[in-house]
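Notebook entry, structure prediction.
Reason for the run: the old model in the group folder had no record of what sequence produced it. Starting over properly, with the input documented here first.
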Amino acid sequence: MRHVTFPCSGNAQEARARIEATIDRRPWNAAGLDGWVRGDAVVLYYRDAAKYRALFRPTFIGRFRERDGKTVLDGRFGMTLFARVLLPVWLAPAIVCLVIALAPTSLQPRSAALRIVLALLGVLLGALAFGRFALEWWGRPGDVEAVSQAIRASVQTH
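New structure, fully documented this time:
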């Protein structure tokens, strides 16, 4: 998706410590910035509730880097690998319905009504799957901006 750079106050260790403190400060059942920091790698997302990780929400994946003597958090927003892997799983029922509805068979004559129902079900399931991933790919209105604001607040001292 889109590439983003966040300027950081201080060095990479200080910025990393501020992000970790922001993540640790969020109560377990509250909305807010969540994720993890391992070395210079950062994965951040917005959690609505503590019961689930926001799998189908924009996730920031980046690294701390030094540029022109200043520390920046450089990365992009995108889908998690797990969410990308789920697309074929979500599309499989749609494909099966469409194949059964449209494939000619001489084993047992099927009624036209059954074929129409299966074709409509396949189209509906396919539209739901693509809609789900389109929502993730382009994001809900304000998701990327909310995560960006939380990251900016974490890596910069005022």
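Summary: The chain has two domains: 3-79+140-155, 82-136.
The old model has been moved to the deprecated folder.
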